[in-house]
Fold these 2 entries.
Entry 1:
Amino acid sequence: MELDEDQAQRLAAATRNRRRELRLTQQDVAQAGQLSLATLNRIENGKATSLSLRTLDGLDSGLRWQGRQGREMGSAERVVHGGSPLPAGSPRPVSQEFVDDLGVVRRRVTFEDPTEHVESPPKLSELAQRVADVSDADVTYYVLRRLLALEPAKRNNMLVAFARMLDAVDGN
């Protein structure tokens, strides 16, 4: 991954701040992340303009940040792109893309969801009724079809988030 100067400086500041917050030496972080001390030094000084995914993964490990999972970015990569790092073990952000008929992403919604392991999501029929009460039938069908297409764990998280959004709109 190629980094411009702003990205390199953003990663440098986040890396330094996290290392100091954890009260670790550069040597500690380098060892934990299986990085060379020289690489970590270049990153912390904003001199790293090209980093491999392995290096970004090592940075996540060494700084006890949440790493990559599937197609989702790890914390170091998220910092490079202007986001915030997440400590290891914290809930992952939920992200949903809305794509048009040509497959072009028209809108991406991402938010922090504290319900990583949902035991009992709201009933789909109850949510469908709530949406139907305030929406056009085509919108309801579209939303529910998209929810049903998600893998079960993500679907449960999205159902909880969806219920919370409806509660917020309803003023509950």
Note: Helices lie at 5-21, 26-32, 37-44, 53-62, 75-80, 124-134, 137-149, 152-170.
Entry 2:
Amino acid sequence: MKLFFLAAAIAVPASAATPVDHNADRSGEAPAAPIRFETGPVVQEVPPAPAPVIEDDAQSLGSGVASFYGAKFHGRRTASGERFDMHALTAAHRSLPFGSEVRVTDPRSGRSVTVRINDRGPFSRHRTIDLSRAAAQEIGLVNRGHGTVELELLS
């Protein structure tokens, strides 16, 4: 009887293998460990698919000093004609076209935020960009008032 059982296990073709995921959890997320395919006495391991590579076409604008503006200007018209919303992720820049998207990164913390240029400024000589209060909050700039940031033009 043992010979027949062993022969049947060897005769199972690899195409008839069924996946068995010993690491599956009930959350619906993909398992982190490789999925094992059991084909009888032979076990094949398939590594998880690599994460997709996202190309970043950002153009560096260098570094500069950022500050923020908020409640005093909330609701006033910006240079682009829209009303300033201190809760939106927007910024003022002297020369970038309105609607440009800029990634602002605080090198001290590594935190970044993407803002849309909708106003002109800053009018302080040593500042490069003025962020809305919400954008400054995202990168931790509110308590300091201003700080050095890296700028990247996204579009």
Note: The chain has two helices and nine strands.
